[in-house]
Amino acid sequence: MKATPLAAFAAVFLAALCAFAPGLASAQSANVYAVSGVYVDETAADAATAQAAAFGAAQRLAYERLVRRLSIPEELAARGGAIPQLDQGAIERLVLSVDVEEQRRSATRYIGRLTVRFDPSSVRTLLRQNNMSIVDTRTSPVLVAPVVAAGTPPETAALWREVWAQSGFGEELVPLATAPEALQGAPAWDAAEPFARQAGAASTLFATLLVNGSTASAALVEVDANARRDRGEVAARINGADAAALRAALSTLAEQASMRVQNEWKGRLATGAGQRARVSASALYQNQRQWEQIKDGLEGAAQTLISEIRIEAVGREGALVSFSFVGERNQLVTELGRRGVSLEETGQGPVLRATAR
After folding, report:
1. How far is CA 139 from the centre of its chain?
2. CA–centroid distance for 102 within its chain
3. Residue pLDDT, tens place only, 228-282
4. What whole-number distance in Å separates Cα of residue 230 and Cα of residue 74?
5. DSSP 3-state of 106
């Protein structure tokens, strides 16, 4: 029997999907085990020694952040808040690479913002050896709008935004994306929704900064299509009158706010509210360009809330694809839609299609 052109296309697409699927299954995990936005400032007798000290400090800071990211708060509390203590050599053996995001150096000083990537298998082994549970399941992003109270100096407002953008929150279990500066004002979903949709987020967290003397605080309000939720307030002391002291305080505020979001997600996973679900969907396409768009969309979504993508079958009209996801169904639809793929429920089950761009 002579093969049709569409059947030939299907065979090619099957080979392409099989080739990229294993990478997709591990993409989410790789991101979770990278810690970005690690700020270091080290001084030594010479430039090389200062840089070496800075890289060592970055690895230790990143290790501590990663363990707290992957652990359950109640388990840490039972340990007195202590993470497994390692010497510098042991930490370095967990590290795959250190990437420079930004740096400044002099003859005796090194200032940098770095990304430290860890080996997932080694980190998991370490935590299990210390009888710690591991939570590395991600969900869809939350958009953060770093706004300020009336009367806040423009330079402080700019620093508040910079802290959120540069602190590496995009690799957290709940990725936090910083909204464009155009999103201002009181918390409101009508204003936030276009920006959230663009970021693939189902909600927006407004973090309104107020600086009063030596205290900085931020009121946290999350809005989505259905509700407005008060997440309370975080506060930090400004220990000094210079820009570095203010930046440190604002960074502390952002970290506290992120921790509230992350801990709630881990709590949901622990109680079963964030259970992983499996989806089998028909991927329908008319040409190779459309299939490449679907493939790219799935690959992009594997960085957030989907994983374990598999090819189940290929027919003359498309492929049957299955994958796991964590979160609400509307979050899945939003995330795929942001990446140029629609997910629709039909009489024949879920269907994936490339959308017009």
Report:
1. 8
2. 20
3. 999 999 999 999 989 999 999 999 999 999 999 999 888 877 665 556 788 999 9
4. 23
5. coil
